[in-house]
Fold:
Amino acid sequence: MLVYSFRRFIQALVVLAIVSVLIFVLFRLLIPGDPAMVWLGLEFTEEAYQVLRAEMGLDRPVPTQYLVWVRDAVRLDFGNSAITGRSVNTMLGFAIPITFRIALSAVLLAFFISIFLGVFSALNSDTWFDHVVRSISIIGIALPIQWLGVLFILLFSISLRWLPAGGYVGPDEDFGRFVQFSILPVFTAMISLVAVNVRFLRSSFLEVLVTDYMRTARSKGLSEWTVIFKHGLRNALSAMVTVVGMSLATLMGGLIIVERIFNVPGLGMMMVRAIGERDYPVIQATVLLSATLFVVISLLVDLSYGWLDPRVSYE
Amino acid sequence: MRALNAALRHRPTVVTGSVLILILVMVIGAPLLTPYGPLEISDQAFQPPSRQHVLGTDEVGRDLFTRILYGGRVSLTVAFLTSIIALLVGVPLGILAGLLRDVREAVIMRIIDALLSFPTLVLALAVVSIFPSNIITIAIALSIPIIPRFARLIRGEVLFVREETFVEAAGALGASDTYIIFRVLLPNVAASTLVGFSLFFSLAILAESQLSFLGFGIQPPFPTWGYMINRGAIFLSLNPWYAMSAGFAIFVTALTLNRFGDAVRDVLDPRAYAKPNRRKGGPSVPQA
Structure:
């Protein structure tokens, strides 16, 4: 286990190194024009340009530039926005909690809803319930998330007038309003996750249902509830963890769209705005951050197998 | 030929295939199906659906049905180019990663992992932010997240086929490595390439629509389905058909392609019926 964890950790570091090289190449070497000039945005003084050039070390050889860049990134020093001049860290400090709350609520909700749907459709396979659940998962995979968001706005904001169509209120300002503003974004993000999760949970639960240990558990006289949730679900869950881990990549992309539809000032909006304004320091920080986050999550997912399923032996 | 016959007798393949052909005919035959041009403006903005305008009109009086048909040309072309690039790069990568058994495999897999660790849309956005946006750069940008997924699919297939009895048998009968790779492995991999292409095509349509929704796709005035949802969302209370119909077009096309891929897999791979869980078994630790 220790050896495996260590090897997997080194592997994640290698992946991160490749990621950082990719981002460096994209934003330092492939940007048309002089990076310092691009970095500064539209208006700048000759003095600021010279200072930044020296600061970015553009006069030094490329490998040195890369190392300096990595050092700054590790120190979480992302510089300032080329448009507003605000420090990127301040902007991230504001945006990350917003996105994190939406992501976490969507993932948790999706997790419990898909366990419910997946387990019950597997237990009742080939009934109407199963057919409905399977159709939902097929439809959900092809559903454009931006369309779903617009459908929700049309239904819940314009027709029924139950919920606001977009905007954001912090939980400290007014918690009731915060919840109101969060419902539609969270649900939109959640549905696409449920569609993917249910499919996998259903099939892995179907496999578990016919195993010998389930028969043994039943013949021991355990209640059906204990058999299904204690013996069955735990075994099906390890497949689920993979799916949740993998679906996070989709979720992060999806959140950009969700924040754009509902006008939520999170990380996704920050990135979209920055791309529209060619605000490279901000783009680079958000891209690097989301990739790092994903590498860390998949590392945790892989390490959690041994905990969820003791049979997994890490050679 | 045998596969084609089997496909024609397989109902899901025929149904989804026909819908795909219908979508293609409508998109290509757009000038015959509508009297308007996609950029033709009029003074009748936000008309509700009527006999003149099946889906009504948009903010500058352009016919929405016409815009959907022509928008399909742009969206489908970009998505098709994207999937072709993903196939041309991803499939050879996957085959190499599946066949090589040394440090080169590890190198390829780490690069694939690195590409996989960018959230799907983020890398495309990063590329679009740097290069001028035209059909080629957008297709390349969108293909980058698909390439590692395609490569992994093909690698899995190669790894699986390589352990099959018929490959072993070919080896035992004295077939050379080259013969086994080209005459035994590749025909088997071709099936999953076709299936993968269809599934990733549907992903590419969704991804293109997201990119254009954010305003970084093919630039207006040319219509794309994704950008039409973006504009339509602004005028949702004036003409709900605007955003709704564009979203529906994306949904139906992506769904049909996805189902077509699944149906073709059932036809080409009878094993999928017999052993539904053939890829499972053993600790399910990916990338290890």
